[in-house]
Amino acid sequence: MPQINTTIGLHTGLGDMVCLSWIAEGTRATRDPVTFYATHSNHLILKILGQEVSDRLSDRWVAAGDSYLTELKERGKRLRLDYLREFLGIEAPFKRPRVVLSPADIEWAHQSRRDLGGGELVLLFPQALFPSRTWPAAYWVDLAWQLKEKNIATMVMLAYEDKRFTNTPRYAWGYALNQIAALMTVSNLVVGNDSGPAHLAGTIGVPTIVALGPTRRECVFGHLPEVIGLSSDAPPGCAGCSFSAPYRAACDQGCQMLYALKPDAILQRVLEELAKTTRPQARVSTVK
Length: 288
What we know:
single chain; 288 residues; four-stranded parallel sheet; 15% strand; globular
């Protein structure tokens, strides 16, 4: 199998690295396991996901970007992992990768939870690369305050400083990916957009609520039973459009489906999930 080059093409984000890791993990027991070429944050997340990754590009490499074009053409009728496997010519079934963190990372996460009160912890990830997949900022702020009113410890997790969310009860930015993954392992619930953090949290095994607009849970998160997709019934015909009609130019600036999904709806589902007596266990290995 040629080395997968993660530095070019369409599949170069955090969520893409997580999806590709599921595929690569399925090839571990074969005679031709998948390896990666990656730099910077992609290199780090692939290592966290236990993958064989190099900072040197081999003579034989392939990018996985064109599979996304097929997914769009078919309007996401199949699982995204299957589009990727088909494009890469991989027949081995995909398999969940195990997240690999150091004991120091895990202890830091437990201490962080204790610092937040030691009770239930919900992580909110409001940022996303594409506005069409992003639940409105005002709704995230409302949700954060509503959770505080319920005495539920909440942290708004930001990739970078974002003034839209600095009026929430508790927020932070600049955490390393290993810290984010570790904090997910000790949280009760993650809430996010159709974006990388939701893929990572679901893979770790944390119950995860995702606000969905133009994408469909069955396509993007169908391999993750831990991920709960929420969308609105209005406007009619828009849910899961997969960026085809009725998708139009205005949708690039924000999805009406996501605007119609109100904070109360997500709050109610958060409370339902937190009320459950059992939850999936985080799938994490530790290395010194």
